[in-house]
């Protein structure tokens, strides 16, 4: 005899809980309608529990008992490792079983000063990195998965004969880091679709190595998230603006703190900016918080990243059990922007920004009424170049250079 799942006393009829039947839960039979209605909470509780279990059903075993700090969940399985054609120059970690870079294992004692050829190679690869980031970001919309964005980024790198630097670096399984909402950095692209109101960071790097990232809204976002993004971007711009030979590296963090702290946001201390060139990560280390005692001063020929990670809440973080994904400890959102900077003889150059466009013909200046009085107003087309962006001479010949992975 099958006992009623409601009262637990009478013999059950063929009346089965429809929710349990849909979920494949056996044994949910009731003696009559009244007993079923009284026990409807049974079905609701079971349904909720089953739905919660389904959220984690795709996760690998080592992640199923992890206590997530926020609402975001990865969706597995991950797609297969993407292939880089053999004609593309590969970094030394590309085929290493543990993703170890031999050149990075030998620490440089001083911050490297790049020579003219290395700087030109950096200009090329950083310009390509900007193209790849902008192209990939143009596909951000509700419904697209982060894995699909990874495929787009990977293809864009390959089309430019460039190796996507994250791929197999310390065994990172994808070609771009994609960090959503409470993910601070190093998010692994997976099968979760982006949804309206998300914020998403794309961190793109191309071998010999450019490094840049930006945080984007997915559709319409709340004002708090929008302000977090704007403040983070402003902190990067202000920090870049102080760069020139002789400036202590710790001043970068002081400037960022000056912008961020009045907003009540926090600055992640665990991760830093870094030197970048033939080595993906090297000296100098760039801390993004104020009051540090980080040694070192900027010199012409230094190339490094500025990439603060700013959180709505606590600066403390945790890591998912995937060896990579860093998340805010309180589950609140995080934003980041990154540029690669060259210190020049007189200031700085943002390598990961496109050079300003120059016109091949002179524009005729329009006369204004005020000109009759000995003054003139600038044309709409007359613009003052942003301080630190490449000049026209710097950009000359960039297209002709090859990125071959080494200088």
Automatic annotation (TrEMBL):
<dbReference type="GO" id="GO:0005829">
    <property type="term" value="C:cytosol"/>
</dbReference>
<dbReference type="GO" id="GO:0006508">
    <property type="term" value="P:proteolysis"/>
</dbReference>
<dbReference type="InterPro" id="IPR001714">
    <property type="entry name" value="Pept_M24_MAP"/>
</dbReference>
<dbReference type="GO" id="GO:0004239">
    <property type="term" value="F:initiator methionyl aminopeptidase activity"/>
</dbReference>
<protein>
    <recommendedName>
        <fullName>Methionine aminopeptidase</fullName>
        <ecNumber>3.4.11.18</ecNumber>
    </recommendedName>
</protein>
<dbReference type="Pfam" id="PF00557">
    <property type="entry name" value="Peptidase_M24"/>
</dbReference>
<keyword id="KW-0378">Hydrolase</keyword>
<feature type="binding site">
    <location>
        <position position="211"/>
    </location>
    <ligand>
        <name>Zn(2+) 3</name>
    </ligand>
</feature>
<dbReference type="InterPro" id="IPR000994">
    <property type="entry name" value="Pept_M24"/>
</dbReference>
<dbReference type="InterPro" id="IPR036005">
    <property type="entry name" value="Creatinase/aminopeptidase-like"/>
</dbReference>
<comment type="similarity">
    <text>Belongs to the peptidase M24A family. Methionine aminopeptidase type 1 subfamily.</text>
</comment>
<feature type="binding site">
    <location>
        <position position="307"/>
    </location>
    <ligand>
        <name>Zn(2+) 4</name>
    </ligand>
</feature>
<comment type="function">
    <text>Cotranslationally removes the N-terminal methionine from nascent proteins. The N-terminal methionine is often cleaved when the second residue in the primary sequence is small and uncharged (Met-Ala-, Cys, Gly, Pro, Ser, Thr, or Val).</text>
</comment>
<feature type="compositionally biased region" description="Basic residues">
    <location>
        <begin position="360"/>
        <end position="370"/>
    </location>
</feature>
<dbReference type="InterPro" id="IPR002467">
    <property type="entry name" value="Pept_M24A_MAP1"/>
</dbReference>
<feature type="binding site">
    <location>
        <position position="211"/>
    </location>
    <ligand>
        <name>Zn(2+) 4</name>
    </ligand>
</feature>
<feature type="compositionally biased region" description="Basic and acidic residues">
    <location>
        <begin position="396"/>
        <end position="407"/>
    </location>
</feature>
<keyword id="KW-0862">Zinc</keyword>
<dbReference type="Pfam" id="PF15801">
    <property type="entry name" value="zf-C6H2"/>
</dbReference>
<feature type="binding site">
    <location>
        <position position="281"/>
    </location>
    <ligand>
        <name>a protein</name>
    </ligand>
</feature>
<keyword id="KW-0863">Zinc-finger</keyword>
<feature type="binding site">
    <location>
        <position position="338"/>
    </location>
    <ligand>
        <name>Zn(2+) 4</name>
    </ligand>
</feature>
<keyword id="KW-0031">Aminopeptidase</keyword>
<feature type="domain" description="C6H2-type">
    <location>
        <begin position="1"/>
        <end position="56"/>
    </location>
</feature>
<keyword id="KW-0645">Protease</keyword>
<dbReference type="GO" id="GO:0070006">
    <property type="term" value="F:metalloaminopeptidase activity"/>
</dbReference>
<feature type="binding site">
    <location>
        <position position="274"/>
    </location>
    <ligand>
        <name>Zn(2+) 4</name>
    </ligand>
</feature>
<comment type="subunit">
    <text>Associates with the 60S ribosomal subunit of the 80S translational complex.</text>
</comment>
<dbReference type="InterPro" id="IPR031615">
    <property type="entry name" value="Zfn-C6H2"/>
</dbReference>
<keyword id="KW-0479">Metal-binding</keyword>
<feature type="binding site">
    <location>
        <position position="203"/>
    </location>
    <ligand>
        <name>Zn(2+) 3</name>
    </ligand>
</feature>
<feature type="region of interest" description="Disordered">
    <location>
        <begin position="348"/>
        <end position="407"/>
    </location>
</feature>
<feature type="binding site">
    <location>
        <position position="338"/>
    </location>
    <ligand>
        <name>Zn(2+) 3</name>
    </ligand>
</feature>
<keyword id="KW-0963">Cytoplasm</keyword>
<feature type="binding site">
    <location>
        <position position="186"/>
    </location>
    <ligand>
        <name>a protein</name>
    </ligand>
</feature>
<dbReference type="GO" id="GO:0008270">
    <property type="term" value="F:zinc ion binding"/>
</dbReference>
């Amino acid at each position: 005899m099958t006992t009623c799942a409601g009262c637990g006393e009478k013999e059950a009829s063929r009346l089965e809980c429809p929710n349990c039947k849909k979920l494949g839960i056996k044994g949910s039979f009731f003696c009559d309608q009244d007993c079923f209605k009284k026990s409807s909470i049974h079905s609701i509780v079971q349904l909720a529990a089953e739905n919660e279990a389904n959220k984690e059903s795709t996760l690998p075993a080592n992640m199923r008992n992890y206590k997530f700090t926020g609402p975001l969940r990865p969706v597995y399985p991950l797609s297969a490792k993407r292939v880089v054609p053999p004609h593309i120059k590969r970094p030394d970690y590309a085929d290493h079983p543990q993703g170890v870079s031999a050149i990075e294992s030998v620490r440089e004692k001083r911050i490297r000063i790049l020579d003219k050829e290395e700087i030109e190679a950096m200009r090329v690869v950083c310009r390509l990195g900007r193209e790849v980031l902008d192209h990939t970001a143009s596909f951000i919309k509700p419904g697209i998965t982060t894995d699909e964005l990874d495929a787009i980024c990977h293809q864009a790198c390959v089309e430019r004969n460039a190796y996507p630097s994250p791929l197999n670096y310390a065994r990172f399984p994808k070609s771009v880091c994609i960090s959503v909402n409470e993910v601070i950095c190093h998010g692994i692209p997976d099968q979760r679709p982006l949804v309206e109101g998300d914020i998403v960071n794309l961190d793109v790097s191309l071998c010999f190595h450019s490094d840049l990232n930006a945080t984007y809204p997915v559709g319409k976002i709340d004002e708090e998230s929008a302000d977090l993004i704007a403040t983070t971007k402003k902190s990067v711009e202000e920090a870049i603006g102080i760069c020139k030979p002789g400036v202590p590296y710790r001043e970068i963090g002081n400037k960022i703190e000056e912008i961020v702290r009045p907003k009540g946001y926090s600055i992640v201390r665990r991760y830093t900016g870094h030197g970048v060139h033939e080595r993906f990560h090297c000296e100098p280390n760039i801390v993004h918080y104020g009051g540090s005692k980080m040694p070192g001063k900027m010199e012409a020929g230094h190339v490094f990243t500025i990439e603060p990670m700013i959180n709505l809440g606590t600066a403390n973080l945790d890591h998912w059990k995937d060896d990579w994904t860093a998340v805010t400890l309180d589950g609140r959102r995080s934003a980041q922007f990154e540029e690669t900077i060259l210190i020049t003889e007189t200031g700085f150059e943002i390598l990961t920004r496109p050079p300003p466009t120059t016109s091949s013909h002179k524009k005729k200046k329009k006369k204004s009424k005020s000109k009759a009085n000995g003054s003139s107003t600038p044309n709409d087309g007359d613009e003052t170049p942003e301080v630190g962006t490449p000049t026209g001479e710097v950009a000359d010949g960039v297209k002709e250079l090859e990125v071959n992975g080494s200088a």
